[in-house]
Amino acid sequence: xxxxxxxxxxxxxxxxxxxxxxxxxxxxxxxxxxxxxxxxxxxxxxxxxxxxxxxxxxxxxxxxxxxxxxxxxxxxxxxxxxxxxxxxxxxxxxxxxxxxxxxxxxxxxxxxxxxxxxxxxxxxxxxxxxxxxxxxxxxxxxxxxxxxxxxxxxxxxxxxxxxxxxxxxxxxxxxxxxxxxxxxxxxxxxxxxxxxxxxxxxxxxxxxxxxxxxxxxxxxxxxxxxxxxxxxxxxxxxxxxxxxxxxxxxxxxxxxxxxxxxxxxxxxxxxxxxxxxxxxxxxxxxxxxxxxxxxxxxxxxxxxxxxxxxxxxxxxxxxxxxxxxxxxxxxxxxxxxxxxxxxxxxxxxxxxxxxxxxxxxxxxxxxxxxxxxxxxxxxxxxxxxxxxxxxxxxxxxxxxxxxxxxxxxxxxxxxxxxxxxxxxxxxxxxxxxxxxxxxxxxxxxxxxxxxxxxxxxxxxxxxxxxxxxxxxxxxxxxxxxxxxxxxxxxxxxxxxxxxxxxxxxxxxxxxxxxxxxxxxxxxxxxxxxxxxxxxxxxxxxxxxxxxxxxxxxxxxxxxxxxxxxxxxxxxxxxxxxxxxxxxxxxxxxxxxxxxxxxxxxxxxxxxxxxxxxxxxxxxxxxxxxxxxxxxxxxxxxxxxxxxxxxxxxxxxxxxxxxxxxxxxxxxxxxxxxxxxxxxxxxxxxxxxxxxxxx
Length: 694
Hints:
Radius of gyration: 26 Å
Number of helices: 18
Shape: globular
Largest sheet: 8 strands, parallel, barrel
Distance between the termini: 56 Å
Helix content: 25-40%
Strand order of the largest sheet: 4-5-6-9-10-13-14-15
């Protein structure tokens, strides 16, 4: 009613804080129609705010009609002066400012205080998600209008590069809208499924800045508009587990805080590639024992032939541990993997084959090489990063850090770097730019749970990589050692980090890995559809920011901390290589784990396994490339039961997992243009069909 209208307007003309970088508040200038509207608003902002405060106060001198008329006149003036039909920009701006107001309320108010105000926390979450969804919709409409105008003004001889860039902006805006749609659906699901008065929670924490839609070179074909997927056939066990999960105290998924970025804030750098990348993790836990740079140099042509567009290399700096994850002198690129010159030659060889190379950036912690005056290992000598204890977070007394307290999870085995220090960030940026001089195209950030994503945003902005992705690895949600059906809180914390980078970085989709391996191992493929009929990992909410994996050097290899079940690896790749997100294939699954000739029983077993996996993985890669499946491809889940998962991807492929007998033709399924599906690739417990004339 009136209070809702007043709240909307009060929020619409609150001070816009703009985009913030890590700890500072630095508003970004708005351009185009939205910038004009903000300038109009700013010219009489104080008077408007006072007027609306009076209207909202309920005092006798409050005149709601007068306030609303003033708002209406101002919006009409902004819309009519040099802006044409720009209501999409106006409601986008209003939504951005409203989300800012609601976020402030959520940040400073405990759940008990909200109840005392007559507001349920989940209701506030829905309002916040709705404001963010409106903001994303407004931005998409604004970009679409600009693209249309550019095409008309350019004519037949138009600037193709400008149109291509704007089309990329539109696709990224679509991706952001899809993500916001998923967040809105999650907020509504939480709202309708929880008790009317849940137990009070602690005051809500605010995260770092979230992204507006950003311009990238997106896939050449337009990603589908966001639509709710039809609900798949999910068996009764999934429904039972979902209901049980909702009853558990303290297990309600957390909705990430709202963005403080306005819909037309221009982002200068996104590091998410084109959406058509196929990555190879080019090492395992034992690679440092095998002259690795020279070993990989002999495999470059094979890696190119197998269809990979990018390779992630292990940490290349001097390290206390041979694998590189306990770095000491970051500038010294002579490591157990090989020499500086061998590294440079390897990167050059990959570039000659058109393959991008990504460095493993370990900057959560750093091992000291000297003891400080207090006798603790907290000092570095010589070189460009000769730090002392002021570069170390103060939480762990073992290292005597004199910096600020840790802002993320503690890594206890080494001094944790204090990224709040200007000199630390400056030195890290200079070092990353030095790596670029060797030819590195992008970054894989290690242990990003340990430091806020706002710093990753700063490092990306100063190095402008082709692609960046983070390792946000945390345990999935379990109850009595059984994986919960509802993993929304797990995937949302990963996407929180992506938001904190300003949308500039992707992240490994550990949620999909955890769900997928349990679903296949235990014949519980009903887990592969969330309550809204979407993929249940981060790929189901923000697919362009999901890097999908089955294993890596930690989860598999000789460490085996969380291995994918070996008998289901073919089936697992049939899933991630046909679905949205950016797939990353583990080295051991495709190549010999020990190419130097080691012949232990374990090495022979893994070599036989990689030979068995090679053909199905290679065939699936070829099929993905042939049909242009990309990070934002659409998925329509048809069935998700214990022994069967079936889905249509981009109306080009039909994917079936599990031992159940199932045939798409018998089900009357047709692909794009009414084409009949024909079997293209098959393996252990999986089949993939393509259009008959493909």
